[in-house]
Write a structure and sequence with these properties.
By secondary structure, the protein is mostly helical. Helix content is about 85%, strand content about 0%.
Length: about 60
Amino acid sequence: MKKYYKYFAYAVAALYFILGISVFFSPYFKHLPQTIKVSFAVFLFLYGGYRLARIWSKSREEEDE
């Protein structure tokens, strides 16, 4: 079960990065001001990085046990 959780967690973190790219470059969000698009994309990138850091630290803790 933990093996599948790890893959799912990596997929969710990658999804945040993909969403950040799509918000920043997608033509679907033309109606939003540029500052809103950039700030939301940066937020998604940072949150994806935070999730990756948590996954990485949690896996290192499990390896040490």
